[in-house]
Amino acid sequence: MIEEFNLTDKSESESCLNDNTNIEKFETDEARLFQYPKLFSSKILLELCTSSWSRSSNARNDIQPYLRGCKWSPDGTCCLTVVNNDGVHVTELPKDLYTGSVHPERTIDVLDSVIHIKEAGLIYDFCWYPGMNSHIPESCCWITTRQNAPVQMWDAFDGSLRCSYRGFNAVDEMEPALSVTFNTDGTKIVAGYKKFLRTFDVERPGRDFGEHKINSPASCLATDRNLLAVGSWNTSISLFNMSESGTFKSIGKMHGHSGGVTHIKFTPDGLKLVSGARKDHRLLVWDIRYYRRPLNILSRVVDTNQRIYFDISPCGKYLVTGGTDGVIKVWDIDRIKWTNSVDLTDDLKDNSTYRFPLHSDCCNSISIHPLRPILATGSGQYHFNDPISVLEDVPMDVDDVKPFDNDVSIESDKKYSSNAENSLVFWWIGDIPNIT
Q: What is the pLDDT of residues 51-86, one digit of tens each?
């Protein structure tokens, strides 16, 4: 968060600004000065930076600090991560990655958190302020909602708590929001609760809010212009028209998932919506104009109730998702029309353009950089302890019992593993020069 990305080369930009004869041309061509880079052109991902978390030696076995989400800031200077039992971390992007390309022999940076907020309780959701700019300190903030706490806004420079937005129920009890997001222009906060959607004015923290009743808990939210999509644990997705005053008008509902919806996201053009659910191996692509059935069904591996994030590139050409198998899947709209041509006869068919086995553990977090060809991935999940290992430590008569076979699992649904990988990794997904 120390400086903003330059959209053009510094010397070129200064020469245009200083030459009065080129000012008019510079203003005319300003919209095309920055062109989003081509992604996955080398078909090789180069590891740039890494950061990891591990349980302290004196902590209980059920204390496991695994990642539960990562999101790039809107200006691309830093990455916000939520770590289970360890609060929120902010990690800055190294300065040498702001411009230019990378060399295949580049040394991998080990990153430290510049801000660490040790929040107690389970963090349900988090979101950057959409107008965040490192040159404007008052715009550098994010909001979180967690267990037994209101919606809180945090300063991205010093990690201090700026203000809170509190929602109260009918008996005047403060209740936590399950999901939270900003509207497109960042003037209002939309928070999803078990029975209500509540809208807060960003400039008026406290308990003043607008309220709209819903029939099922709002597990995740997504906004685009005047549209609001609300995912629920009852497997449905609701569409609302959101007015400037914060009122909602229902448009319709979409059904298709077999589990509770955990993540939804609009495409950059605002015409399509992608959704994912718990214990559901499908990503559904919807056309919000004809939402009765999905446009396409994409496959990934989701074997747990954990939220598995996906992301869409700012250019709208790439859809990237993780999975509980640690494999990153990429759909390129130029190669595979992932936004249409649904095949209902085989909804588990893998038609992804690229597959990258990047992690040995669950890859639950995906975030594409807003300006650079850099992908942030986060890995980790809760690992259960095998109860059989406890019995193995108890002395037994070898004539009375057979040795346990470590390769045999008593229940196929339960997987016991001590190979945990709790890491945040930045990958280069653009052109790699001088590669052999």
A: 987 766 555 666 778 889 999 999 999 999 999 888
403-to-234, 387, 391, 392 alpha-carbon distances in Å:
44, 15, 11, 8
* Nearest Cα residue to 379 out of 428, 424, 415, 418: 424
The CATH number of the domain covering residues in 36-428: 2.130.10.10
pLDDT of residue 137: 93
pLDDT in tens, 233-273: 999 999 999 988 778 999 999 999 999 999 999 999 999 99
How is the chain split into domains, by residue range? 36-428
CB 285 within 8 A of CB 296: yes
- Structure token pair of residue 250: 């229902």
Say if residue 231 is exposed, middle or buried (CB neighbours under 10 Å; 0-12, 13-18, 19+): buried
Amino acid letter, 160:
S
Per-residue pLDDT at 10 exceeds 60: no
The answer to whether residue 135 scores a pLDDT higher than 60 is yes
Contact yes or no for 62/356 (Cβ under 8 A): no
How far CA 349 is from CA of 256, 296, 297, 340, in Å, comes to 17, 11, 9, 15
Do residues 35 and 413 touch, judged by C-beta distance below 8 A? no
pLDDT, tens digit, 9 for 90 and up, residues 16-44: 334 444 434 434 444 445 688 889 988 88
**Do the beta carbons of residue 394 and residue 22 sit within 8 Å?**
no
Strands (E), 94-202: 109-110, 115-117, 123-128, 141-146, 151-155, 161-165, 167-168, 174-175, 179-182, 188-192, 196-201
- Please report which helix (H) or strand (E) contains residue 24, including its range: helix 23-28
- Give me the sign of the Cα torsion angle 77, 117, 275, 412: positive
- Average pLDDT of the chain is 83
Residue 159 token pair:
């990690």
Angle ∠(339,268,81) on CA atoms, nearest 5? 105
How sure is the predictor about 350, in pLDDT bands with cuts at 50, 70 and 90? confident
